[in-house]
Amino acid sequence: VDASDVSCQVVLGLLGLWHDGALDDHDREVYEQHLLFCPPCLVHHDKFRRALKALSEYGTSS
Amino acid sequence: MRYWKFLRAGGTSPFTGYRWQPGEWYDADRASACHCGFHACRPVDLPYWLTDELWRIELAGVVVESEHKVAAQRARITTRVTGWTGAAADQFSLACLRRIAGHAADELAEAGIDGPAENLARVLGRAEVQAWTQAATTGMEAAARRQAPAAERLCGFVLDAVEALSAYPPASTAYIAARAANQRSTAAVADPFAAERAWQAQWLVERLGLDDGR
Question: From CA B86, how far away is CA B94, in angstroms rounded?
Fold first, then answer.
């Protein structure tokens, strides 16, 4: 993945891997830098994070 | 060495949403470039991580440097950089837009498309977005007629950046500027993308009065 020219499609493909902590350092940095200059992808990232948190809390409470 | 950290509004980490408490030390098990440890910026790293709030951050324990950031075993944010305001961010975005238009004007001139090149160069000092849009559109059309794809693309970048000024954060305009530098058909430096980022870092350091402590 080239940090200077990565598409939203590629970044969204990394979303789950980022949350799993499964990206290597380079891809993680590419993913994170993209989120800062691409608000639509950041919205997807935030929604995914909140959904995971809600699922985790539900799993703890049930 | 002094370090800085960008946080989103409310002092939260950009990606995890964690809310930092100023003055409180945080500990990680170990520091590595990405997965563990707390991330911070050297001055040269700042344009890669732009967001709402900029804080001074102190690091301790193991500190690992990588290309665009450092990661530390222990960290605490101390004081917010009050100069990084919405107005400063707007000025930074405008400075990046001027750089993009400068690249486009130079590319048009190198392709021998002199009239639109001069027209675009003339609007560099002006703040009216309409003038930028008009000059870039004229340049793009002229470049298409003359089959000058780099000039055409760069004029398109000016239009993208004008749109980003009102709708997107400064990180977007900064990224477009770095990509625009990369699109020049002749480059004076080996890595134009990195050189543009270095220019942006210098702008931030000077405008915000950041001192790396060395």
Answer: 12
DSSP state of B206: H
A4/B169 touch (CB, cutoff 8 Å), yes or no = no
Radius of gyration from C-alpha coordinates of chain B: 19
Q: Length of chain A, please?
A: 62
Q: What are the residue ranges in chain B where pLDDT is below 50?
A: none
Residues A32, B172: C-beta atoms closer than 8 Å? no
**Using a CB-CB distance cutoff of 8 angstroms, which residues of chain B are in contact with residue A46?**
17
How far is CA A18 from each of CA A9, B173, B176, rounded to the nearest angstrom? 15, 25, 24
This complex has an ipTM of 0.88
Least CB–CB distance from A36: residue in B33, B34, B50: B50
Express each pLDDT in B90-131 by its tens digit.
999 999 999 999 999 999 999 999 999 999 999 887 778 889
Asked if B35 lies within 8 A of A37 by C-beta distance, the reply is no
Residue B127's pLDDT is: 72
Closest CB from A23, A25, A33 relative to B48: A33
Sign (positive or negative) of CA dihedral B45, B49, B50, B53: negative
The sign of the torsion formed by the CA atoms of B139, B145, B146, B149 equals positive
